[in-house]
TrEMBL record:
The keyword DNA-binding applies. This is TetR family transcriptional regulator. PROSITE patterns: HTH_TETR_2. Pfam families: TetR_C_3, TetR_N. InterPro entries: Homeodomain-like_sf, HTH-type_TetR-like_transc_reg, HTH_TetR, Tet_transcr_reg_TetR-rel_C_sf, Tscrpt_reg_YcdC_C. GO terms for biological process: negative regulation of DNA-templated transcription. One of its GO terms (molecular function) is DNA-binding transcription factor activity. It comes from the Bacteria. Residues 11-71 form the HTH tetR-type domain. Keywords: DNA-binding. Residues 34-53 bind DNA.
Length: 202
């Protein structure tokens, strides 16, 4: 059956499937999730589920592919005409905001990476790598122009991922360390802004 819904009802059903799948896969992982669980979480019958997607793997792959596009958008939005340091800091803040607002998505993506990315390895080697290379070239140009301090640009991007996504992927650990009454995100935003501003100011 088609995976491209066209009617309002089809669009709504597909949205419900993606939301239900996110809930199940982020909690159970790919191996632990079942079509019955996704059906229950989405509020649709299993035959209805299979009308849109032929298998659990098809749902999972689509979910991850769409998630990667959302994950890459802040990097895509880095403005070559903008002020370099502010563009980097804006990227850091947007990535931290995504960890705060989309923890299930972040954990789902992290679990796929830990398993060797069997479902989206081609996307990582294609779309992700191309975008990172393009932004690394932009960062290198800004560094050569003396507008940012020299540092390996690709590792800069990777370190931003690590320092922002950690707050979603290891939320339990973070909150255990900080205590139940502290919201980690405002403090993290201030800390990371200072960290990267100090690192990159010429």
């Amino acid at each position: 059956m088609s995976e491209t819904p066209r009617t309002r009802i089809q669009l709504e059903n597909r949205r419900r499937i993606m939301e239900g799948a996110l809930e199940v896969f982020s909690a159970e992982g790919f191996r632990g999730a079942t079509l019955d669980q996704i059906s229950a979480a989405s509020g649709l019958s299993k035959p209805n589920l299979l009308y849109y997607f032929p298998s659990k793997e098809a749902i999972y792959t689509r979910l991850l592919t769409e998630l990667l596009e959302i994950w890459l958008q802040p990097l895509e939005d880095m403005d070559p005409q903008g002020q370099p340091l502010e563009e980097v800091l804006r990227y850091v803040q947007r990535k931290l905001d995504m960890s705060r607002d989309m923890p299930r998505e972040s954990r789902l993506f992290a679990n796929e990476m830990l398993r060797g990315a069997p479902h989206i390895s081609e996307v990582l080697a294609g779309r992700l790598r191309e975008l990172v290379e393009a932004r690394a070239t932009l960062l290198s140009r800004w560094m050569q122009e003396g507008r940012l301090r020299q540092t390996p640009p690709d590792h800069l991007i990777i370190s931003i991922w690590a320092l922002t996504q950690h707050y979603a992927d290891f939320d339990v650990q973070v909150r255990a360390v900080l205590g139940p009454d502290r919201d980690p995100y405002p403090e993290a935003a201030g800390y990371l802004t200072t960290l990267f501003r100090d690192l990159l100011t010429p």
